[in-house]
Write a structure and sequence with these properties.
mainly beta, 11 strands
């Protein structure tokens, strides 16, 4: 079983910064992708940023230039540095880890609230 524990959410004013962390534990295949998704009220969950174990990244257009994803492979931890936050970044942010060995393995954290006030 895999467990993901997120931390770092909170309330911040527009223009401010937050750093999210997510620590994964359990049996995790070393060749995996970790990432962050978010879901705002009344909207579908969307990709924010993902990073492979090799360091390749992909960002949503709405966060490019403001958010930076990174990871520590030895600690199975992924981070999301969020700068220049906007009210539209308000959402519950979910951590994810996934990999494929014959079948897909896909795990989610419980989510952490990020609220950006104007």
């Amino acid at each position: 079983q895999v467990e993901l524990v997120e931390s770092g959410g909170g309330l911040v004013q527009a223009g401010g910064s937050l750093r999210l962390s997510c620590a994964a534990s359990g049996t995790i295949f070393r060749f995996n992708t970790m990432g962050w998704y978010r879901q705002a009220p009344g909207k579908q969950r969307e990709l924010v940023a993902v990073i492979t174990n090799g360091g390749s990244t992909n960002y949503a257009d709405s966060v490019k230039g403001r958010f930076t994803i990174s990871r520590d492979n030895a600690e199975n931890t992924v981070y999301l540095q969020m700068n220049s936050l906007k009210p539209e970044d308000t959402a519950v942010y979910y951590c994810n880890v996934n990999w494929k060995i014959y079948s897909w393995y896909d795990y989610w954290g419980q989510g952490t609230q990020v609220t950006v006030s104007s």
